[in-house]
């Protein structure tokens, strides 16, 4: 007769193995459902500029538009400073759980790697690209006292007075500064750069006649341009702008193939789940294509632009190469 104790032991072992296998199957089956629960809490959107500016308006407008689709609030966290480095560094080292994103722009992804010897973040390694957000068309403007009334006249005047014409920018290495460096190369003129700490003081001195010219994004100066307080000489876009239909493109003014934007998109910490990136991109694209969002952004001089994550990454790399070459050729540094 078979001993009872060993039989019960073997049977108990089999029962335990079966129970463990069933538990494992239940856990495996429930894993996708748990992953699909994102977002389970509000998202933090870091904006590396002060509240109230064009970049902040874009973020708040889009955040409000994507909140219903996500089902969770998107909270704006303004982290200005050091040409977006403060905000970019915070996000680069944030937990990649899908709850932290960043507005990354021309400075963050394209200019800073060439302007600074050391950055606390690496655009290629520390971020995952989600999608583009907007482009800020640049307009070449002159103060009312500047003698030239057209772009052609401005170029001729600068050629006759090399180095005597000065131009303002929100800071060395800013998109506005780089656009003017490119313009000087292509127009074959030499002017003197006067950098400021931000667009507001630069515009104030331009209005006062302290500086002659400036490439200005409409988010910072559309009202002054529309009212004629600043004279618009040309837009740095392939086609004329709907809000400034009478202002020719820089190409029409005699500098062919000239194009320059300040642009921005959304990124997240490297390692953010692919499913989260896909979902965020879908919500961004949907929001940026709505008439309400487009109208709001156009009202502040901004063009809504949507893309896939791959398209945004490719665009940022191309811009980094383009502006990086110019920065190195001109010897522009900020540290």
UniProtKB/TrEMBL annotation:
Q: What is this protein called?
A: Tripartite tricarboxylate transporter substrate binding protein
Q: Where is the signal peptide?
A: 1-35
Q: Which UniProt keywords apply?
A: Signal
Q: Which Pfam families match?
A: TctC
Q: What is the lineage of its organism?
A: Bacteria, Pseudomonadati, Pseudomonadota, Betaproteobacteria, Burkholderiales
Family note: Belongs to the UPF0065 (bug) family.
Tell me which species this is from.
Cupriavidus oxalaticus
């Amino acid at each position: 007769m078979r001993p009872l104790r060993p039989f019960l032991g073997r049977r108990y072992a089999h029962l335990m193995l079966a129970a463990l296998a069933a538990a494992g199957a239940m856990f495996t089956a429930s894993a996708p459902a748990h992953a699909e629960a994102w977002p389970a809490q509000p998202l933090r959107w870091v904006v590396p500029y002060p509240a109230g500016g064009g970049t902040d308006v874009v973020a708040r407008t889009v955040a409000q538009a994507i909140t219903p689709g996500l089902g969770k609030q998107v909270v704006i966290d303004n982290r200005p400073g050091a040409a977006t480095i403060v905000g970019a560094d915070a996000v680069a080292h944030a937990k990649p759980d899908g709850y932290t994103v960043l507005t990354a722009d021309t400075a963050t992804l394209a200019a800073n790697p060439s302007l600074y010897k050391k950055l606390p973040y690496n655009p290629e390694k520390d971020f995952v690209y989600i999608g583009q957000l907007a482009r800020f068309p640049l307009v070449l403007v002159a103060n009312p006292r500047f003698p030239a009334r057209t772009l052609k006249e401005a170029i001729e005047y600068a050629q006759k007075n090399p180095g005597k014409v000065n131009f303002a920018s929100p800071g060395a290495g800013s998109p506005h500064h780089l656009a003017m460096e490119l313009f000087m190369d292509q127009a074959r003129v030499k002017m003197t750069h006067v950098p400021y700490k931000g667009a507001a003081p630069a515009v104030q001195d331009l209005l006062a006649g302290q500086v002659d010219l400036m490439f200005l994004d409409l988010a910072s100066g559309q009202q002054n341009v529309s009212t004629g307080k600043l004279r618009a000489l040309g837009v740095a876009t392939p086609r004329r702008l709907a809000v400034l239909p009478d202002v020719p493109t820089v190409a029409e003014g005699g500098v062919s193939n000239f194009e320059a934007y300040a642009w921005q998109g959304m990124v997240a910490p490297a390692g953010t789940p692919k499913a989260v990136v896909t979902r965020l991109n879908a919500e961004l694209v949907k929001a940026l294509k709505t008439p309400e969002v487009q109208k709001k952004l156009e009202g502040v001089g901004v063009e809504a632009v949507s893309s896939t994550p791959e398209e945004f990454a490719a665009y940022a790399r191309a811009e980094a190469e383009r502006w990086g070459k110019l920065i190195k050729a001109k010897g522009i540094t900020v540290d």
